[in-house]
Sequence to fold (226 residues):
Amino acid sequence: DTGVSQDPRHKITKRGQNVTFRCDPISEHNRLYWYRQTLGQGPEFLTYFQNEAQLEKSRLLSDRFSAERPKGSFSTLEIQRTEQGDSAMYLCASSLAAGRETQYFGPGTRLLVL
Amino acid sequence: DAKTTQPPSMDCAEGRAANLPCNHSTISGNEYVYWYRQIHSQGPQYIIHGLKNNETNEMASLIITEDRKSSTLILPHATLRDTAVYYCIVLNSGGSNYKLTFGKGTLLTVNP
Fold:
């Protein structure tokens, strides 16, 4: 257990529905990252927060995706109008801002869109 | 970030040392080498990282060549629980470059 938690661990939804995932980082970490991993591939970067500010979004993050970190603590990732191609493992990681950048990952949320 | 090259798969006998190679010939002077592993259906787990010197922790040792163009992760006494995909990543730590770029990694299978 790295101290990063994600909820839910698994989600099955029908195409067109909205889903929201939550990530709770290690308490003193002010950087938070979201990655997506499809079968047989390594994780791919989606977006990144420093405190409450979202500093970068990948081109993978279409307009249907939105992420927030309102108080600089936990973060949510919402997918609107889900598509079958959104089926993947969504991973959250956190790190300290300054000096060492080691990112510690949570267990992930596995999404299946039917 | 520099690109890394790893073999797609390796086998190791339980109790023996597992040596996982990684080539990163385009690494620059301020880039660190990080190793993560991912056991099936779990999130990636940080193992170790280094810049120039060899590093050791409770999980593994990292040997970086003098020219920094390649490195080897060593698991000294592999167990069945070490079966996982191992990722070698080069990262410009401390600067504005913070994204971990994962390749396909090496699937290490530890056999009884």
